[in-house]
Amino acid sequence: MYKKKSINLTLLICSSILILTGCWDRTEVNDLALIMASGIDKGKENNIELSVQVFIPRPAEGGQQSGMSSGASSGQTFVRSAEGETIADAMARLQEELTRKIFWGQNEVLVIGEKLAKEGLSDQIDFWVRHSEPRIRADVFISKGKAKEILEAKPELERDIAQQLREMVKTQIGVKVTVKDLAQMLSSESDAAVLPWVEGLSPSHLGLNKERIPFVNGVAVFKGDKLAGRLNDKATRGILWPRNEMRTGVITISFKNEPGYISLNLLRSHNQLVPTIKNGKWKMRIKTDAGLDVIQNTTNLSLMKPANIKEVEHMAIQEIEDRERLAFTEAQKKLNADIFGFAEAFQREYPEVWKTRKNEWNKIFREVDISFKTNVQIERTGLASGKRNIGETK
To answer: Yes or no: is domain 242-394 CATH 3.40.50.300?
Structure first.
């Protein structure tokens, strides 16, 4: 009886082993080509050129931690390109050139070349959204010139170009747009989009370094899915306020009859679009509420006096509204691109009117009357009160 039980137990253990899962189909990291950043350009004969920045993991040497380095000096990152009739075709050709399996899970940056952007992005973004491997939360940029050249650049501070571009948009001084965000903007009622514009730092800023270091300089504006133009850094700040994306920044103001400047740091901001349609006139009011902190005062004004605080707040309001007007003039009058989300605001407030007039939006947007209601409160002035002593201040 005991022997029979032992045999049954042995058979049970053996049969259990057969159904246990294992790691027979696992892929080692050393068998992968990790994509850190990618770029797409207009290729030859209407082809698409796909470029990728590949990171090759290597074991630590000399007791130090392994890490990623920029450029070919360490041999751990390099850029490889391939052309195809579509991105999928180019991706397949790229895989043929690499001995390791391409892995897209680490790809956090997508750079699109200027020439390709002018022809349209819908087909390219469609691939990025449909394919299961590339990340839809990757940050998207438009490059001046070829995207491939941006990927080949060697940053000075960050370990690779992908990290440098990510850190730039993480500061939230400019716009931050992912593949998912871009797909939503291209399918929105506004039929317009903005993307951060990246270009090489001019040689006059580089000293003896001959490498062109990429940096974000304003935004690219899209009408539909095609590049319509770009706005400089100052106009870009005016875009962020009505889009409710202003999270950090410094406002510096001056006075006509007072030498020096006062610099204010943004602590908080909230913006609201208030649309109205009255007597056939479409209007949009931009309501802004902001809290500021005085971080430098080189004037002789004492910020201990309520009257001076009110004057500073008034000047800050003018500066914010001037930036917004500059952005609206560029986008509304010159580019006719609703990058502020006005269409969605009118659709929410007047759904029935929108149904009958949405096909006329391109014409209506040019004529929308824009006004501002801005409230600014200086919440902290600091201990210093200007260049003079408190008793001597105005």
So the answer is: no
